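User: I'm new to structure prediction. If I give you an amino acid sequence, what do you actually give back? Let's try with this one:
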Amino acid sequence: MTETPTDIGPGTREAAIAKASAYYDDGRFLTDLARRVAIRTESQIFEERKPDMDAYMVEMRQTLEPLGYTTEVFANPSPLAGPLLIAERIEDPDLKTVFTYGHGDVVRGQEDRWRDGLTPWEITVEGEKMYGRGTADNKGQHSINIAALAAVLETRGRLGFNSKILIETGEESGSPGLAEFAAAQKQRLASDVLIASDGPRLQPDRPTLFMGSRGSMVFDVTVDLRDGAHHSGNWGGLIANPALVLANALASVADKRGQIQIKEWRPSSLTNSIRMALADCEVDGGDDGPAVEPDWGEESLTPAERVFAWNSFEILAFTAGTPERPVNAIPPKANARCQLRFVVGTDVDDIVPALRRHFTAAGFPQVTVTQADRGVMQATRLDPDHPWVRWAATSLQQTTGKKPAILPNLGGSLPNDVFSEILGMPTLWVPHSYASCSQHAPDEHALLPIIQEGLQVMAGLFWDMAEDGTPT
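Assistant: Good question. You get back a string of structure tokens that encode the predicted 3D arrangement of the chain. For your 472 residues, that looks like this:
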């Protein structure tokens, strides 16, 4: 059993929440996060950033070991991603074990595209916004959870449960090696429940709980008709234009309001319990976010059902010829990079074959479909009526006085299948960001009110883990 300090007396739930709040109020959260943001852990240029990945592991060890955690850093099984860290605080083998996850890597800094006065590697606070790469995704979020664990420890003198923490450094590149690592460390990582944070709240001022994520598959759709371009005056109307062929082919995948036309891509997993959970959920990206367009997406569904319980097809990029220097010629080739975000119930192995069959049946045999080399994020979810969901929702409401939004899964994608399928645990995600945080773009930021409330919510949640009433 881990030794705990003897000079810290017992406290209360309210005292733990107050300590978490004080960590924000006195500036310590900002100081700690600024140190982490300054470490340039851009996983998309992994080879260049290996020393930074190692530095982030050191930062995490120096944070967790004073809290009584034993830590170990592992090389990634994949040569395409940085190290992983396991931290453990085992107070009693008979207690419940909570598994917490975070990723220390970030997307490219894109320094030259940030607004004047901002840089990705330094925190800048303006009003209620705290700018910096990783403030929202994901350094800020796992920093909140670690601080909440510390607040419970300081108040109670112990957690009252066992804690295991996994920090990876490859999530923004598709988490290479994470599944293999989890399978190899399955016994060591075994836990009763995952409680972690990533992604946005449904609305900036409403605590949110989601239990999985939509899956994601990226693929290239190409029409390659000939070698070389040909003069559009001499050959226009005589030879097929691959861009027009591709545009028409893609237009057959979804109609004018984006409704998917491929029957294999239309899920059958929208259950009554999911509809009920989403009934009071209104998608809101905040003042800076786009407004929901009522005439876009599946007409029979609510906006919340469209993004959390349905599939969506997107064209991410479309090229033909040389867009930056167009000439009067019919291009030989056109290519589109496309994506399907999909929910549980979609046959992952049939996504690309179904698209190929569709193009052939629609009269586009010259269209080819190739799955991209980014891998696949699997779709996962936990039923909204699951006992762990009800327990967590009660805790969040007790802390905030607000009814939390309960989403069966995130609209985006996370490596949640590693935890739900390989490690076999229920998964609860409590996000501390909002939809307009620009996490993969210039000017990434977190909202200070969400940070403050996030610290309180997680301190209450971790406090409740040691109380009576947790699921068995």
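You can read the tokens as a compact description of the fold. Here is one thing that stands out. The chain has 14 helices and 17 strands.
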